Amino acid sequence: MGVDVQEFKIGSRLPITPGMNSWRPHATNPTAWHAALAVLASVLAIFALLAAASVAHAESGGFAAGYSGETVETPSTPASSAETEVPGVTSPSGVTTPSPTVPGALATMVGTKAIAPASAPTVVKRLIAAANHIRTTPYIWGGGHVSWVAKGYDCSGSVSYALHGAKLLTSPLVSGSFMTWGEPGPGKWITIYANKEHVYMVVAGLRWDTGGDENGETGPRWHNAPAYPKGFVVRHPVGY
Length: 240
Fold this sequence. Notes:
240 residues, alpha+beta, endopeptidase fold (from Nostoc punctiforme), two-stranded antiparallel sheet, 8 strands, elongated, disordered N terminus
């Protein structure tokens, strides 16, 4: 059908013939709208679950929640587990009690390895065994904080590793956090010396430290030399 443009005026209705439908919007399909709303609701539910999982991870001790605001020795870029795994070094929780021991209440050194005293509690023997496990690794800033298994350890990472092996610590701490950990003063078996820049400990008479080697080598090592307490807060694990 043709329409005479000259005769058509704004606001007039087009002529309708039996072959044409009325000029009106098509009715919306309710089924299609319901399907679209269902898809949108599913997407929103997925985003809500992801957000809840992220919060739960942090609250349960994820990396972001494992530190108390102290930034000393915390790596700026966390290493992946693949980057920190090294053959021969395992999680301290799997280290067994050392054998043999030496008589008395003081540990001794055979080469670079510490031998626990026979009269020491099992906790102390486990700590020494765990420390021995990483005693030849190098110093690496941030080592031991992202994963217990690392290519190297910093001061707080090595102290945390040994304490975790003794089941005295569940997650690694930075050096400043040890200033308020445990109880004040020296312990009978384990004494920790901490400030915001460094931490080390003395276990059954031997010093566990990442510094102080005569040959300039750095990394977690046992030392016969005594503690240097000036400038450090002295703490110890409860009961030890």
